[in-house]
Amino acid sequence: LCDMTLQELLEENKGSKALRCHPIDWSAKHVPLRREDLDWLPQEIRENDVEFPIMQISISQSTGRIIGYFDRDASIFHIVLLDPKHNLQPAAKTNYQVQPTQEAL
């Protein structure tokens, strides 16, 4: 990942299809959060979906997703959430239900 550009991450088959890097679809079925709920983010980032789209990157199917955003020059990915059960965008295989997740210690 460190050697890839944002464009390469987003282009299918450029990096790895397994990364499944894409912006969060906040209007998708059963998304349990809204972008506004990320109230620990600075307002400039939270309210600016054009410059700072919230993205997900797959770690693995069993380990889940990393949720975050790229800074203005796309050189740093800021992690906002860890989503081990893929709950931010529930999938058809879980009947679009949020799966129980243990809190980290």
Radius of gyration: 14 Å
Please give the largest β-sheet.
Answer: 4 strands, antiparallel
Structural class, judged by helices and strands? mainly beta
Average pLDDT, to the nearest integer?
Answer: 80
How many E-type strands? 4
Shape: globular
β-sheet strand percentage: 15-25%
Distance between the termini: 27 Å
Query: Which residues form runs of ≥5 with pLDDT under 50?
Result: none
Query: Major sheet: order of its strands?
Result: 1-2-3-4
In DSSP terms, counting alpha (H) and pi (I) runs of 4 or more, how many helices? 2
Quick description:
The protein is mainly beta. Helices cover 9% and strands 21% of the residues. The longest helix is centred in the N-terminal third of the chain and has 5 residues, at 6-10.
Give structural notes.
With 105 residues, the chain is mainly beta. The protein has one domain (6-94). 9% of the residues lie in helices and 21% in strands. It has two helices and four strands; from the N terminus they run αβαβββ. It has a four-stranded antiparallel sheet, with no helix packed on it. The radius of gyration is 14 Å and the shape is globular. The mean pLDDT is 80.
What key attributes describe this structure?
single chain, 105 residues, mainly beta, four-stranded antiparallel sheet, 2 helices, 4 strands, 21% strand, globular
Please describe the topology of this protein:
Elements (H helix, E strand, L loop, with lengths): L5 H5 L11 E2 L19 H4 L8 E6 L3 E7 L6 E7 L22
Antiparallel strand pairs: 1-2, 2-3, 3-4
